[in-house]
Amino acid sequence: MTSRILSAPARGGVSRRGILQGAAALGAAGLILPYGAKAARAQTRGGTFRIGLGHGSTTDSLDPGLWDNLYVQVFAASRHNQLIEVGADGQLVPEMATSWESADGVTWVFAIRQGVSFHSGRDVTVDDVVASINHHRGDDATSAIKTLLSAITDVRADGQNVVITLEAANADLPYLMTDYHIPIMPAVDGRIDPASTDGVGPYIVESYEPGVQASLTRNSNYWKENRAWFDRVEILSILDPAARLNALITGEVHLIDQVDPATIGMLEGRNVARILSIPANAHYVFPMDARAAPFNDNNVRLALKYALDRQAMVDTILGGHGAVSNDNPIGPANRYFFAEMEPKGYDPDRARYHLQQAGLESLDVTLKAADAAFSGAVDAASMFSENARAAGINITVDRVPNDGYWDNVWMKEPFVASYWGGRAVEDHMFTTAYASGADWNDSFWSNERFDELLVAARSEVDESLRREMYHEMQQIVSYEGSVVIPMYNNFVMAVANGVGTPEQIGSNWNLDGFRCVERWWMA
Amino acid sequence: MILTRIALGVGLLFVVSLVIFWATELLPGDLATQLLGQSATPETVAALRAQLGLNDPAPVRYWAWLTGALTGDFGVSLANNRPIADLIGARLGNTVFLALYAAALSVPIALTLGILSALWRNSIFDRMANAGALGAISLPEFFIAYILVLWLAQTGFFPSMVRINPTTTFGDRLYMTFLPALTLTLVVTAHMMRMTRAAIINLMASPYIEMARLKGLSPLRIVLRHALPNALAPIINVVALNLAYLITGVVVVEVVFVYPGLGQLMVDAVSNRDIAVVQAIALIFAAAYIGLNLIADVLSTITNPRLMHRR
Predict the structure, then answer these.
(1) How many domains does chain A have?
(2) Which of A506, B43, B46, B194 lies at 20 to 30 Å from A263 by C-alpha?
(3) Is this prediction's ipTM beyond 0.85?
């Protein structure tokens, strides 16, 4: 056992951090003797890793531009690599790009890793990388990230480098390239085949039935040495929460997502699996239409923001697996999170004061909610309604059907429930949902100072100035914005005891940044 | 008589196909705007409409769709461009397998229990069988499924979910799908058993049964040889109805046991507005209902010669 612990960092010894973590694990093993064996990071090869996910549908597509749910995301991360990986600590790690640099933030040069081959056998070329990015650009592109990449004016090959030119400087372009929609795929005549499963990733697809299951075997030519421990991986779609839990208890699967908070206690009593609760940037929101009365008055919005008990919601709706948010879409896992911002407690008197400022005695609004928005949305809306009554605010909760919620209610009705998966980059989150006129600005909010800062911060290279700008933007959204953000929800997953997990689990996306398949092992 | 019945069935199916097509026509938007989604511009929509033949008049499109469906070509899924025949193929096989498995378990059980409880009418056995079957049918399917998982899966006897692929052997298939089949058996048995019992008891009051009894025949022989053949018509009908249910209505059981059948496909297709898939499955379900009822009618006509020569 000891020799394994010692050899683990040596085998994985690419980064200093890995060695430090290994040393920390050794220390822990020495200090806490009875559980030392459990905590040891003895990574071993072999085994079949089966995952049961509450996502996946027969309509899922292999086209990277259309990926939209956790099933396809994890499946993609199992068979593909990207230019840059987000490490478990949130730092950028070179993947198919060995390095990247830019003098002005406008022209970016990515050096492409040489000697890596696709599952089909051919070596990766710079042209493959260019085609993989261009799949999301151009007039005929149907990709979900077409708008996100619209600032790119040119992508070209230059020797063993790929050069990306932007419309205007953006210091976050490398982060943008970590987006899961941009895997490196083989190109023929400058175009990737969107129906192909060929990639350079840790596992090779054996069979795939959309909405049912995918089977993969280990890629013996995988270029990373300290990754991909399992021999085989099976990813199953199990939509029913109870069926998912049963599959874990009976040993059919080793990992499940979206564990119902109500069943966590029962699962812990069984002693077959452990719960991983990862604090993240994902959050639940109640957007208000800032164009429509009464929400066009910031005092009304502030009154609502002081009229809910955030901590009670975290405890009840999330079962404690989350954290209070101060109406801030930037989460604690973000680089420029404004942790020192003055928090808003549950304060009915203050809410009443803001109502009076708005010239109102009482307020009647309707909040439309469905559990499609987030699990527990209807309950959260009811709690909001109860809390707000003390401040003279009358919130009528209108429960609407899940079916068609995103088409007919969200961004159509003035006050609704919704969620955001959180973004690794501040700019990404703000540009998507808070910039004036953005496609998904679901509160239809517009603020001149905010828009100015958003553009300025994008190209600011001075780290402390940039931090200040992002802090001010968070302050503006929190105190003048048109969204109530009560809480950040953790990523909650349950892992069978037989599976080993790293000390630090990635929080950029669910399931270790979608990379559980590549990073975890059979203990 | 039988030929008329078959012709009626085919005609009915034709009408259903018209209704399905017409209902889809009523939906706002068309295939082109659905396919293009957010990136729909007037030019791309026009180009795609021409490509899909959407500019043709409705009767022409209906005819193309119907003839395609008859030859097994349902077109492609709007969501991921896979041929619908591929999507449906394996799942239809799974659904039919589960339906036949459940029928193979439930029909013999239901008939045996029905005959025995008619034979021993008002006995303890009769009351127990009735109470058990009615109890099982009164519980929602998902509840029965969860109870079975708790008793038979969490204790390690059977798997709690079905993981089958084309290479799974027949024996493994039977083992892995036992719990869903058992759940469905518990759901459908009561209906068939009660019908068998009622039909036989109804006949037991007839004069010719009285005659048989007076001749001194054994009760079992009376039921099997004299009552059952005349009771077959209603029994066949109720069996067919339940078989149709087993093919079309088992979404809940599919979800609980993660069984890749047609029901789940239909739910996915509806929630994603994948109209072409919905149309195809609706047509298959309608065909299953009409076909099974047709078979039941034909069989019950054959078992009752009087119906063949009705004037």
Answers:
(1) 3
(2) A506
(3) no
